[in-house]
Amino acid sequence: MPVPDPSRRRPGVATRSISPENPTGARGRGGRATGGTGAAAGRELGRGWKVSPSIEIAAGATAVLADVAGPGRITHVWLTTHPDHWRSLLLRAHWDGDPEPAVEVPVGDFFGQGWGRFAQLSSAMVAVNPHGGMNSYWPMPFRAGARLSCENLSDRPAILYFQITYDEGGDAAGDDCGYLHAQWRRSNPVDGGLHALLDGVRGAGQYVGTYLAWGVNSRGWWGEGEVKFYLDGDEEFPTICGTGTEDYVGGAWNFDVPGQGYTPYSTPYLGLHQVIRPDGLYESQQRFGLYRWHVPDPIRFATDLRVDVQALGWRSGGRYLRRHDDVASTALFYLDTTSAARPRTPTPDELEAL
Questions:
Q1: 183 close to 297: Cβ distance less than 8 angstroms
Q2: Domain boundaries, the chain
């Protein structure tokens, strides 16, 4: 995914944008609402003055954010909602009329905010800014249509602001483009020291991103575990094997700067952007947010893919210790099919952040 050239002309491609102020994204249809969440505030100004800036999603309901006929490519998604809903709103994306979602991830985790607490994230693909302005620049091509929705799994209504910008027509999708997939999994606690990020994916594509919401359930250093990619028929042993969790996201030596302890950082493609310290540097119940976007270095596979990470630390005597931490992962990949094997939809209890 090279950096796009903004000077390039693309005949036949038009830009559209869907928001509560233009629910269809159609040309010339923005700002026409006569009712909405801003109607009372704008009653003295009238139509065209921020009458419908957001939507309310009732408890247990699903709201369709965008329903687009293809071909096209989503280029930017911005949204915000109260942090109480970052884990209870489930974001889904369906491509080309497939009834199975390719994306099914809690809103917060999709944007690297799995703990329900704001953490600045300044990367090329995802940017989250004060206070909870969530932006995704993952390209999302489709050929016959796209449907994005949010399901409210909580017992309270949620107010959601959003804007989805996309190109339509011409070569917006691209003949050689895969479909974006995103899957969420949680091990709470990790069983046997191994957490699966992906399992059972079949087809050709490329793995492009990992977000980890890592909760430490016991004392001691927690990030010795290797991230492993099993490609194209690998069974017991992987083709790609890293050297440690902090190494995988571009850090080293426990993220521990002498005299400072854990030191957060956020770069275009990798980072430790969140550290929640309830009781000290190496104590239990700490929470971390880590990401690695494989954009300059995608992991390509031809037939199948499986990915896991070890939850591994140290015990006395310089021996490794399998850990039983709380690990929630979001794995992003492009595939030549519109859906793939995925875990079952999580329950509200399984999504509980803290």
A1: no
A2: 11-177, 178-340
| Under-70 pLDDT residues of the chain | 1-3, 279-284, 354
- Cα separation, 111 vs 91, in Å, equals 11
Q: State whether residue 246 is helix, strand or coil.
A: helix
- Token pair, residue 331, equals 């794995």
Let me know: does 152 contact 57? Beta carbons within 8 Å.
Answer: yes
* Cα(17)–Cα(204) distance, integer angstroms: 30
Beta bridge partners of 19: 22
Please report, as a single letter, which amino acid is at residue 150.
Answer: C
Helix (H, G, I), strand (E, B) or coil at 351: helix
HEC string of 113-151 equals CCCCCCCCEECCCEEEECCCEEEECCCEEECCEEEEEEE
CATH topology assigned to domain 178-340: Jelly Rolls (2.60.120)
Q: How many residues does the chain have?
A: 354
Report the phi/psi class of residue 87: left, alpha or beta, with left for phi > 0 and alpha for psi in -120 to 50.
alpha
Angle value at C-alpha 152, between 97 and 187, nearest 5 degrees: 90
Both tokens assigned to 59: 């408890």
Q: Closest Cα partner for 126 from 91, 88, 101?
A: 91
My answer on whether omega of the bond before 131 falls inside 30° of 0, hence cis, is yes
Mean pLDDT of the chain: 94
pLDDT of amino acid 37: 92
Phi, psi of 180 (to 5 degrees): -70, 135
Let me know if domain 11-177 sits in CATH 2.60.120.1390. Answer: yes
- Span between the terminal Cα atoms of the chain, in Å: 35
pLDDT at 283: 64
